[in-house]
Each structure stands twice: as structure tokens, then as C-alpha cells.
Amino acid sequence: MINFNSIDDVLNFAIAEEQAAIDLYTLLAEKAVNPAVRKTFEDFIQEETRHRDKLTQMKEGKKFTLQPSEVQEMKISDYTLAIKPSPDMTYADALLYAMNKEKAAFKLYTHLAARTKAPELKKIFLLLAQEESNHKLHFEIEYDDHVLNED
Amino acid sequence: MNKIIDKEFFSSNVFKLVIEAPEIAKARKAGHFVIVRIGDKGERIPLTITAADPLNGTIILVIQCVGVTSKKLSLLEIGDFITDVAGPLGHATHIENVGTLLAAGGGVGVAPMLPIVEAMKKAGNRVITILAARTKDLIILEEQIKQYSDELHIWTDDGTYGNKGLVTQGMEEIIQKEKINQAVIIGPAVMMKYASLVTKKHNIPSIASLNTIMVDGTGMCGACRVSVDGKTKFVCVDGPEFDAHKVDFDEMLFRLNAYSEQEKIAYEQYLKQ
Amino acid sequence: MDESLIITETERNQDWRAELRKTLKNKNRTAIPRVKMPEVDPQIRNKSFIEVNDGLSEDIAIREAQRCLDCVDPTCITGCPVGINIPKFIKKIESKDFAGAIKTLKETNVLPAVCGRVCPQEVQCEKQCFYTQKLKKQPVAIGYLERFAADYERKNGLTSTPEISESNGIKVAIVGSGPAGLTCACDLAKMGYDITVFEALHEIGGVLKYGIPEFRLPNEIIDFEINQLKKIGIKFIPNFIVGKTISFDDLKAQGFVSFFVGSGAGLPNFMNIPGENFVGIFSSNEYLTRVNLMGAAKPDYDTPVISGKNVAVIGGGNTAMDSVRTAKRLGAERAMIIYRRSKEEMPARVEEVKHAEEEGIEFFMLSNPIQYFADDKGRVKQMKVQKMILGEPDASGRRRPVPQEGSEYIVDVDTVVVSVGVSPNPLIAQVLKDINISKWGTIVVDEHKMQSSIEDIFAGGDIVRGGATVILAMGDGRKAAAAMHEYIQQKVKQIF
User: Does A92 map to a domain?
Assistant: First the structure.
């Protein structure tokens, strides 16, 4: 288990996680057969890059006043089978994959927030969790509207 | 309506039909199948195209009598018509020179295997073929497949022809003797399950050609769905060939037996008539 | 002014229409209550595939037609995706010119017997009816009247052959014999083109045959309409999968100069939850195809179907209604709808939901399956359902269902039909490498011309829209036919 001694540790960890996501999506975008799926992964890269940059800015001392308001959870991803990404995956599969990934990231940050005693660290983790949850909700709405359109 | 040009029995319940189907013959490649229906009340069933003659516009189907529809087909004569023949369906086999190919065919699975073996041999592979069945009467297409095999080994469960034993034994013997680059496994689902366990053990990349229940055959119903590497695939449009080591054969066996009670009763009733 | 508006106005001013309006005062017309469609008793019809709606008799149809006020500004037409001249056909019925009514319908609608039965009139023409909009009363039963006129033609052998231009010998290929393809084929054939419709299945009609059950749309009605199309020279080739049996290039080599792709949204969507591949769990496509197309409910047909005592259908659209009502007819003791949202949000036709309720279908709203369990033969025996609550509206304004933790419960089921939606058939997009497709696999087209990124290929219906309605597909077919005609004529001019 990683011990965080400072806010910097936390942020370095989160930045590394976001970078890993960017690298993964870049690989998937390169390999995607359907150009629209490729575009989706490229959009993911942009968003994760924003996350990474936000965290980096946070680290460099800029203050953010985002209120962690409650984000609606739809939890479609909680109950679908985890799929491995592949170059020929359909857009629906890409969405499911992204949902699972974001859910994992959300869980990670929430878990960290619960374990952290320092209020400032806690707040940062909750902020990150909310960002991931927003991301997941976005994908869930897309899936909801197009794949489960009669449910 | 497709006319039957020729017919021949290989054994008491395995037979071949040569059918007029000019467009299908022209478009067909090894690995493709057709969906066939007899009569307005008939069901749709998939049958692999064993061979095609584009010049004469005919295709060859090799069929085993296992139920009502295959029995009805066996009773048709030269000059009769099959109500509906649609195809070619599925993905064509990926043909490549890999070096040495082990082709393991069980029972009537040899019929779909023949075109694959032929194509792989023509692509320059060394081909070692095993034909396996319960008994001599169920060993089919031996002469045809011998043409395209560098070695041919026959195994029967009861020893009435060739070696006595299971296909898995035959495979192990061959694998011990020489390096195999790829395997193709076609036969009853149980046979494919155990044969692919053998090749998995020896890390030999293997293709299985799956024979699930189908209704439309064009990807619109999902009757033929199987789990491959945890993902649901449709045999009719994503297959019929898949990485044998990733197929959930147990699930496939359940789904294959979905109608076994109804099929058995229907077949018995039909035979009584 | 729009040309079609001028025509409707001119026709409204014709003597016979003006005279007809005078035969009954508007206040008497509006006093007539909306007709009730005679229906087979629910407890009888839920055990057979007999058509539920009996249809209107002549007298009753005329009475209902009298309710129509023949508005100066017929807003009903704006609600119709193919722009049927609704007041005209209704007034023809009122004046007992039934042959004239069906002729009017067929000017814009190739399949009125179908649309009269399956269109969601409550959100289309009848929603825009003056009664609904201004009087806040039940609208004129436009759908029932359309059906009446079409059935009258069929039952009395009236069959009006439409005017067909002289044959120009130019070959056009239609891929798919569903409503989009049939409509495009008919319009182009009337313009003199040499039309061949290629169909992958062994029966002509697409989703009309395999998807919509006999108790809503009898197959003999579809066959009647298809015969009318054969009479105007359209050729139908079943068991022919364009892209597999033959390539587009080979068809061009055979002389086809343009193509309409109406291959539909036949790919079933599954939910990807644990146990979904157990025996006894179907897509609605498979379940309905076995029964509607392959006759699985009839003892002398070879195709079987599994349909047990406790059947759950997941979803809330027309397909889910069709599936659950079929299950009831196949002997289910419990035929259940499991739907994730609330009743108000169900996309199914209002009449279908009502009929389903009458037939004893159980409705479980705000419920979602999350797992299936099977016996030792792999046959489904139970499902785990989780309850939902509707959350606050999100950015799109829609209230989203949110799972309730700890609300899970087990239901005994021996058959499940997954009816959550369909996606476009991927084959055409796979074989036409250069064609522009959306992320959902639909063919991208110009919305007015229905032309794809490949200039000689046009498309319409579900392959463009994702799963949608029969009438929208027909509207696309019409638009495409007009645009294809223009395209072909331009090409012909270039050659000469």
C-alpha cells in the first residue's frame, strides 16, 4: 500500500494514473478499426489529458473552487461483464469499457478519500472522484440512449 | 428453389448432394456455409459447403442424418428441388503457409474440414490429418482428404477401422513426434472441447469451426451465440471459426442441447411416418 | 406556398367536398364520440394468434369519417411522415367512395393496410388532429379509417393498379424487402424503372413478416400488398444476401446503375449481464422470428421454440409488447414485462400496452435484471432484479433511472426475451469500405436525398435511423426514390 506523505505524493500518483489511461487510449485509438470508435478514444485522450493537466496545475499551487456536488449514479457499469479492449470493438463495447475504467478510477479515489485523515487530501481525492464519476455518467447516458433505447 | 444434380451415400446415414447454385458457387470460399430449408413448414439449418464448382454453378454439401431436416434431405432424389438455399455465409477460412498443420476431424466434421485441408495444402503447408469417429461406418471422405494430406491417421473408438482409441490419443502421438505450427479442429462439440485442451497444453495455436444452432444465419437473431474470450460472438457472422482455446465449449454444449428433447421426439415421429 | 399545400387546398374546394361539408353541421360532427375498435375478447385472444382488432364495418367507418371537420388548415397531414392527404381519403369514405379512399391513400402510402395497424398515430397524425389540439377531445380515428379503406380494397378485390410510366429499362437494385425497400421499389417502378428487390431471408417483407406478430399484422395482408407490387413488374429475389451472395461491383457489372440499401437494424442488442447466454434466453428477434416467420407455434411446422410458464421480457418498446404477448399465447402462466423506467416513458404504442394489460401481462416498472441463474442443464431458472428510482433530470432534461442499492430480489423464470433495442446490420458497412458510417454503425446519408457518401448508393429505414418505425422507413424510401430518379436522370444526360 502506498503511503502518502504529502499532497504532492497524492497528486503524483493521480497524475501517473491519468497518464496510464492516456497511454492506453492512445494505443486503442491507433488500433481502432471503426473511425468513429477511434474518434471516441481520441476524445477520451483529450479528457484524461485535461484531468492530468488539472492535477498538474493543482500541484503547482493554483487553487480550484469546484464544489463537489452530488453526481447522479446510474450504475449500469456495475452490472455488466468487464470486457477487454480490442481493435475491432464496437462503439457500444468501447462505451462499456470506458464506463468500467472510470468506475475503477472513481472507486480508487473514493477509497483513498475515505482512508485519508488530512482534510485537504480528502478534499482533493473527492474532487478527483467526482471528475471520474462525471466522466462515467457521460458514457452511461450515451449507452443508455443508444443501446438500451427500448429499455 | 435449387435443383439436386447428383447424390451419393457414403455410408448408411452420411450422404452427399450436388446442388445447382451458380451465384453461391461463384462467391464461395473454404469455410463458408449455407442455410437450407425444405418445404414451407421446414426449419432453416446451416450446412458447410464442402466444395464448389463455379464453372458448372454447383456446390457440394455433405450431410449426416441426425434429425428431421437432414433426414428429409436424404430422401430427396436427383432432379428434386430444395426450397431455399442461402449463402455463402460466415467468414472464409484464413489460409496461410504456417509450416505444419494438424487437422483433426471428428465424424461428419470431416466434411467442413476437407476444403480447409485442401486450401492449406495448396498454400504450401505440410498437412497431417486425423480422421476420428466412433466406428468404421462413420469415417467419411477418406479418399478425398488423403489427396491433400501428407499423412493420414484414422482412429475409431471401437477399433473397427484404423487405430483403436480417441482422437485425443492420435493427436498426442503426432505432437510427440514432430513440431506442429497450427491445428484445425472440427467435429462434435465434445470432441472439439477435448481436442483443443490437447493443443492448449502444447501451446499449439488452434482453430475450431463451431456448429451451433442457427435460425437466420445472417446475424439478426443470436441463436448461434457463443462466448469467446468472455465476449459474446455470433457464429454465423463472426465465425464459424474461432480461436479454439478461447471458446467456452461447456456453454456451447448447453446451448446445442436446448432443443434435444423436442428434436428427438420430432425425429422419432417423422421416422414412424 | 408549398406545392402539396396548394393541391390540398384546391382539392378541398372541389364541389363534392364542399357539398359533403354541408350535409352535417360541425357541432353535430363534434358531438359524435370517437369510435371504439371492436376487439376480440382478451381472454380468448390471449390463447390464439387471431388478429386482435376486428376492423370497422362500413356504417361505423362512415360515422367516424363524419367526425372529421375537413379543416381549412389540416394539421393532421403535418403529423404524417409520408404526408398522406388525410382529409381527402376520410371524406371519400364519408361519401361512400371507398375505392377513391384507397386510391388516395396509395398516392403517398404503399402499405396502408400495414400503417393503419402499426403506426403510432397517437404521436403522429392523431396528435395533430384539430380535436386533440384545439377541442381537447379524442381525435378522429385516422388509423382505423386507413385500415378500413385498405381492408375494403383487399376483401372486395378492388385492386387499383397505379399509373406507371413507360418502362425506361434502367435497372435499380433494392437491398432488403422491408418497408423502406418496398416503398422505394414501388415509387421507382411507377416511374418506369426496372426494379429488383434482393432479400436475405426466404420470405419477402423484412420486419413486417419476422418481427410483427400475426395478431397485430397478419402475414396474408403483407403478401397481398407484395403481390400488388409484383403486378407492377417489381422482381423479388429471396435467399440473396447482397455483399455475400454477390458484390455491389458484380451487380454494377450486371447493369444496375443505382442502389437503395434498406437492410434494417437486425442486430439484436444484449445487456452483457452474467448468465445471458443460458438456454432459454433469447433476443426478441430470435423469439419472434421463430414464431412469426418460422411458424414455431404451429404443430405441423418444424421449427421449435422454447417458451415456458414464467416468461420475462426485458424492455418497453413495441417489440417487447409483441414478445410478451406472444409468450402469453404460447402458454405462459406469468408473462412479465421488466422495464427500467416508468410507464409514462415506455416507447410502445399506447394501444399495444392497453391490449397487453387486458391480456393479463404483468408490468414491472423501474426494474432491471442484473443476473441470471440456470439449472444443471444450463436452462435459465431465475433472474435477479434490481429496482430503480427516477433521479433528477440531467443536462438533457431526461429523468434517469438510478439503481437502488439493496433492492435486489429473485424471480423464477424459465424463459427470458431480451428486447432492449436493435442495432444496424453491419454487413453492408463491412463490404463497402468507402461508405461513411456513424459510430453506431448506421449509414450516414444526406437527410433530404438519403444519399450516402457513395454517390450511387442511397439508404433509408433502420439502417440509417437505428431501430425506428415502419412509417419512417417508408418516408425514407419515398425520399430516396425521388432523389435516385434525379441522380439517374442526370447521369443519363451526361452520357448522351
Answer: yes
